[in-house]
Amino acid sequence: MEKWKTLKSEYLHHSPFGNIRKDRCELPNGLVIDDYVVNEFSDWVNAVVITKEKQIVLVEQYRYAGGEFFLEVPAGKREAGETHEEGLIREVREETGYMSLQKPIFLGEFMVNPATQNNKVISYLIVDAFKQYDQKLDDTEEIRVQLVDFEEFGDVLMRQELPVQLFTAHAYLLAKNYLAKRFENNEHSF
């Protein structure tokens, strides 16, 4: 297989949230697509945050496009000059007030939707978290922090009791798998 060739690119829209780009592409078989639209977004970071009491720290907030209140792991995008890890720690602190003395554990980096988007979500696990700060929310944010037993949250996901964002379910399953492997290797604590 061969990659597609970009013959031309033009921007249809620029905004602080992302850009929309229209490309003219040539496929390996010679077919040309005149209007392949790509959404350019910043990479996102998220974290499964688990307290010393084995509760997952979740944020509930209204998501306009989804038209519902969603239960999510803390997430956001990096600010200028931040590493993924620094951006993650800042987002967790701002959205929840939680922190940990442990270094975040990298769980993985995944393309969001490589058919039409160019960004990734980078997931981490934070263990032994504790409440240290007040929330520091943007003017557009209204977030309620919820603590749920880590193991029970898996049942909530499976029963689809609440609207949950895909990246939350994905990060939770990555964290659960990581912790199960640690337990198998006789590392019995989070």
Give your account of this protein's structure.
With 190 residues, the protein is an alpha+beta fold. The chain folds into two domains: 5-40, no CATH class; 44-188, Nucleoside Triphosphate Pyrophosphohydrolase, CATH 3.90.79.10. The protein is built from three helices and eleven strands; from the N terminus they run E-E-E-E-E-E-E-H-E-E-E-E-H-H. It has helices spanning 84-96, 150-159, 166-184, and strands at residues 5-13, 19-26, 32-40, 44-51, 55-63, 68-72, 75-77, 98-99, 105-111, 120-131, 144-149. The strands form two sheets. Strands 4, 5, 6, 7, 8, 9, 10 and 11 form an eight-stranded mixed beta sheet that branches. Strands 1-2-3 form a three-stranded antiparallel beta sheet, with no helix packed on it.
Question: How is this structure best summarized?
Answer:
This protein has helices at residues 84-96, 150-159, 166-184; strands spanning 5-13, 19-26, 32-40, 44-51, 55-63, 68-72, 75-77, 98-99, 105-111, 120-131, 144-149. The chain has 190 residues and is an alpha+beta fold. Its cofactor is Mg(2+).
Give descriptors for this structure:
Nucleoside Triphosphate Pyrophosphohydrolase
Contiguous uncertain segments of 5+ residues: none
User: In angstroms, what is the radius of gyration?
Assistant: 19 Å
> Strand tally, please?
11
Distance between the termini: 43 Å
- Proportion of beta-strand residues: 35-45%
* CATH topology-level fold name of the largest domain: Nucleoside Triphosphate Pyrophosphohydrolase
> How many structural domains?
2
What is the chain-wise order of helices and strands? EEEEEEEHEEEEHH
- What's the CATH class of the largest domain, please? Alpha Beta
CATH superfamily (homologous) name of the largest domain:
Nucleoside Triphosphate Pyrophosphohydrolase
